[in-house]
Amino acid sequence: MGIEDKLPSGVLLTTVEKVAGYARKSSVWPATFGLACCAIELMSTGGPRHDMARFGMERASNTPRQADLMIVAGRVSQKMAPVLRQIYDQMSEPKWVISMGVCASSGGMFNNYAIVQGVDHIVPVDIYLPGCPPRPEMLLDAIVKLHDRIQNMKLGVNREHQVTELEQAQLRRLPLSAPAPQPAVPGPAAPGGAD
Ligand code: SF4
């Protein structure tokens, strides 16, 4: 039996971390950062059919100082990369990044010198969204997953421990591709064997 069973009804027990996480996840404001065709799907997500306003996120911020989520929608050109980084630096802490679409995540079909081959070369990415373009439902799913992450974000020294554990887990991960099995090398023929 926990202490909550001895308290009168109506008393809510929680932690500062959970309250802060709940407040943060309920007040995410995206910065406008549509770069290419994926931005059309991003705009559609804000419309009445998909209704990003259900999360209180329909207010796209035109100043980075009042935004804490960057949704990179489209391929990032080399020329745009420093601008993107500057806007990211001006956003308020804590902040998060969703890489929307294959072009933002990896350069996609634009495998050339003009396009950054993955926006994670410029800013840290929290969620990668596959597809060309990802549907608004996929973006909503990414937002829900990001909310879960924000809700469970630790504070202070707990945050430092969490980051250290994540880094250690990353270092322990096995490589995605195992080395190919080598063909067996035939040994020397036995003396006196059949020709
Ligand atoms: S992923 Fe597809 S839709 Fe999105 S920017 Fe690239 S080409 Fe356009």
Would you write up a description of this structure?
The protein has 195 residues and is of the alpha/beta class. Helix content is 34%, strand content 8%. It contains six helices and four strands. The chain has a four-stranded parallel sheet with strand order 1-2-3-4. Helix 1 packs antiparallel against helix 5 (136-151) and helix 2 (38-45) crosses helix 5. The longest helix is centred in the C-terminal third of the chain and has 17 residues, at 156-172. Iron/sulfur cluster (SF4) binds at residues 36-38, 74-75, 101-103, 108, 132-133.
Briefly characterize the structure.
The protein is α/β, with parallel strands linked by helices.
* Major beta sheet summary: 4 strands, parallel
Task: Write out the strand line-up for the largest beta sheet, numbering strands in chain order.
Answer: 1-2-3-4
The N- and C-terminal alpha carbons lie at a distance of 82 Å
Q: Radius of gyration over alpha carbons?
A: 24 Å
How much of the sequence lies in strands comes to 5-15%
Order of helices and strands: HEHEHEHEHH
Structural class: alpha/beta
- Report the average pLDDT across residues: 86
How many individual helices?
Answer: 6
Shape call: globular
Secondary structure: number of strands: 4
**Distinct compounds present:** iron/sulfur cluster
Indicate the low-confidence ranges by residue numbers. none
Helical content (DSSP H or I, runs of 4+): 25-40%
